[in-house]
Design a protein that fits this description.
- The complex is a heterodimer of chains A (306) and B (374).
- Chain A has twelve helices and four strands.
- Chain A is mainly α.
- Chain A has a single domain, classed as Orthogonal Bundle (ABC transporter involved in vitamin B12 uptake, BtuC), CATH 1.10.3470.
- In chain A, strands 1-4 form a two-stranded antiparallel ribbon. In chain A, strands 2-3 form a two-stranded antiparallel sheet.
- The longest helix of chain A is centred in the N-terminal third of the chain and has 29 residues.
- A two-stranded antiparallel ribbon of chain B has the order 1-2.
- The relative contact order of chain B is 0.17.
- Chain B has a domain of 224 residues.
- By secondary structure, chain B is an all-alpha fold.
- Helix content of chain B is 76%, strand content 1%.
- The longest helix of chain B is centred in the N-terminal third of the chain and has 40 residues.
- Chain B is globular.
- The two termini of chain B are 22 Å apart.
- Chain B has 14 helices and two strands, in the order αααααααββααααααα.
- In chain B, a hairpin with a 4-residue loop joins β1 and β2.
- The chains are: A mainly alpha (306), B mainly alpha (374).
- At the A-B interface, α4, α10 and α12 of A face α7, α12 and α14 of B.
């Protein structure tokens, strides 16, 4: 029972960044500008959380400023892919690699450290224990003892479920991807929708990163996202635009990561256990291609002519 | 437009003589502008990154360049580092040309390195040439098999190759880390490394203590072969057709499936050989972080070279100098050597945004002229 409780608790904790990143990417899938730079955006978010946290000494300020920085980056990214016609796939791949290099550069030049930045001044986000539920087995570790960002991620899931059914905004976002001409004729602004999707993407990735760095660990390590963004990307591709399926996939990936932490080294070697989320994502991808008629979503790669 | 007007006043005969020269100058300019533009962006970025650390940009850059290409030894060192990257970049480019975005170069390099390290260490010492050849061949087969498998999934089952190759990176790297830390670990060493390979599985050094080995000749041969395969052979033509328009290629009788799987197989084989070079030309054994980042460098460089073999080789050489210079700069200052990756990222974004940026600027200019006119 103790093992199950800690497994579920860490499962929910590890689900949070994946779920946030997947929710971030979802609107960019609607507008057909699938952002493959989740990994990089999350890494910047994690870095921002630590840096702003150190500078202002408060977790709240850190998260707020990281989100603000995310929104700003989203505007720049959106402007590049809509107005400057930069291919979104190239921009995303470059963003991933750029983030890896830029955070190391900044880490070295701002703090003079190589590898890991961990200092007593870094605030960590408080976890909330819900008084009565906390003691209940199974339910307790799932519902209680998490950071505000974990709860926020589930609020966003609820909002997204509602928004997909009932709001004009989501319809406009989807129309910007599927029938841009129709949206323009109906008086919508296609470019604004595409930029909005990227802003949303970067803002949520910023939160996902902050959850990693100051929500779970209170430190920043080079390349600490370590493929989580790609796992989230697999969830987004797998769900084909549906929020509930997306949430389920994220939870599966989160639980798979929790297995890697909980399982004893003697039972499964740690590297094999760490492989689990990637293997599940890979198998999911193959299953998707076999079961759906259109073979799922293709990432918008550029053609190599001229 | 403004260039044409003076010619209208000239006699017919003279215009006939002048215009070809004029057009060739213009064609040359059109080719040179992107290169100059990216060069300028790279330089400006470098100056900003160095000045931001409180150093004088120009002397620092010169010191870095001196470290990278100052004398024969440093050129050899820079080149030695670039050799595996050239092979990997050519591999990635080859797949790009047939429309297959092989982002899994990193994993294929690791698989190749592991295969070469095991062949070198466990299959007993043989004649120098044969053992070395066996190492390269096994790593090419392993890397090629991984990539061909992913290519098969894309060609036959329509599994998006971008995401499948991305995920394969982590699966392969973790698996290799498992092999190197548990069953195949060198018991004499603490960290995650395999046994050292036999001497017969190592290239001989050309210039002492530079790590520039006779692998150079292998790489030159591979460059030539890849260029011929991609640009001159019938197979390469089929691959390029598939990349530009699969539907048109299929309609004109090209087997699209075979092109996709084939190009991925050769791409993976080259990445595998790149991994083997890491072992047989320098490290002498596999360790868990042997090729960190080389696969990603290759992906970026293949992108900026637009998958052309010749420009891929040129870009890798430029990048090798940049990276080596960044190392040198790191030694004389506190500017981190990650600067080279930041520069190449900036250059790629600038290069892909260039056309759009110029259109925006022209638009702004037109608007300005119109407002002046009123």
């Amino acid at each position: 029972m103790e093992l199950l409780n800690s497994f579920l608790g860490s499962g929910v904790r590890l689900t949070t960044p994946i779920l946030l990143a997947a929710l971030a990417c979802l609107p960019t899938q609607w507008t057909k500008d699938l952002n493959v730079g989740l990994e990089g955006a999350m890494l910047f978010g994690a870095f921002g959380g630590v840096v702003f946290g150190l500078a202002f000494g408060s977790g709240f300020a850190a998260v707020t400023l990281t989100i603000a920085a995310g929104i700003l980056s989203g505007l720049v990214f959106g402007w590049m892919i809509t107005r400057l016609n930069v291919n979104v796939f190239i921009a995303g791949i470059v963003l991933n690699i750029f983030a890896g290099a830029a955070t190391v550069y900044l880490l070295r030049s701002l703090f003079g450290v190589k590898g890991t930045l961990s200092a007593p001044g870094i605030p960590s986000l408080p976890t909330y224990r819900i008084p009565f539920i906390d003691g209940v087995p199974i339910l307790g570790p799932i519902l209680s003892g998490h950071t505000v960002l974990t709860y926020l991620s589930w609020v966003i899931v609820a909002v997204a479920l509602f928004a997909v059914k009932n709001t004009v905004l989501v319809r406009h976002l989807k129309a910007a991807g599927e029938h841009p001409a129709a949206l323009a004729a109906a008086g919508g602004n296609v470019q604004r929708m595409r930029i909005l999707a990227q802003v949303w993407c970067f803002a949520l990735c910023a939160i996902a990163g902050a959850q990693l760095s100051i929500g779970q660990l209170t430190l920043f390590t080079e390349g600490m996202t370590n493929g989580l963004g790609f796992v989230a990307l697999a969830a987004v591709i797998f769900c084909r635009g549906r929020v509930l399926l997306l949430t389920m996939m994220s939870v599966v990936f989160g639980l798979a990561s929790a297995v890697a932490i909980q399982v004893n080294d003697e039972v499964i070697p740690p590297q094999i256990a760490q492989m689990l989320p990637y293997l599940i994502a890979f198998i999911g991808l193959v299953v998707l291609a076999r079961t759906s008629k259109d073979g799922g979503v293709r990432i918008a790669t550029p053609t190599m002519e001229s | 437009m403004s260039l044409k007007t003076p010619f209208k006043t000239l006699p017919q005969s003279q215009e006939g003589v002048k215009s070809p020269a004029n057009s060739s100058v213009r064609a040359l300019a059109r080719r040179a502008v992107p290169g100059l533009f990216t060069l300028a962006v790279g330089l400006v970025l470098a100056v900003i990154l160095i000045e931001a650390q409180g150093y004088q940009a120009l002397p620092t850059i010169m010191a870095g360049l001196d470290y990278a290409v100052g004398d024969a030894t440093s050129i050899a060192r820079t080149l030695a580092w670039g050799l595996p990257l050239i092979v990997a970049t050519l591999g990635v480019s080859l797949a790009y040309r047939s429309g297959m975005f092989n982002i899994g170069a990193e994993g294929q390099i690791y698989a190749g390195a592991m295969a070469a390290a095991l062949t070198g260490a466990y299959i007993g010492p043989m004649f120098t040439g044969l053992h070395l050849f066996l190492c390269l061949a096994v790593s090419a087969v392993v890397g090629g098999a991984v990539a061909a498998g992913l290519g098969w999934l894309r060609a036959v089952w329509n599994v998006d190759e971008v995401l499948s190759t991305l995920l394969s990176n982590y699966i392969i790297m973790l698996f290799c880390a498992y092999l190197a830390t548990a069953p195949l670990r060198d018991p004499a060493r603490q960290s995650g490394t395999t046994r050292a390979v036999h001497d017969t599985a190592m290239f001989t050094e050309l210039i002492p203590s530079t790590q520039l080995t006779s692998a150079l000749f292998v790489v030159i041969v591979l460059c030539g072969a890849t260029w011929w395969l991609s640009e001159r052979s019938v197979t390469g033509y089929r691959w390029r057709m598939t990349g530009e328009s699969p539907a048109f290629a299929a309609a004109s009788g090209i087997n699209v499936r075979r092109s996709r799987i084939g190009s991925m197989a050769v791409s993976g084989a080259l990445c595998g050989i790149a991994g083997a070079l890491l072992v047989t030309a320098s490290q002498g054994r596999f360790w868990t972080e042997i090729g960190t980042g080389i696969g990603w460098d290759a992906v970026l460089l293949a992108m900026i070279a637009r998958a052309r073999p010749v420009s891929a080789i040129i870009w890798v050489l430029v990048y090798s100098v940049m990276r080596s210079a960044a190392r040198g700069i790191e030694q004389v200052s506190t500017v981190p050597s990650e600067m080279s990756l930041i520069l190449i990222s900036g250059i790629i974004i600038a290069a892909t945004a260039r056309a759009g940026l110029f259109t925006r600027l022209a638009e702004l200019k037109n608007r300005y002229i119109r407002s002046e006119g009123k």
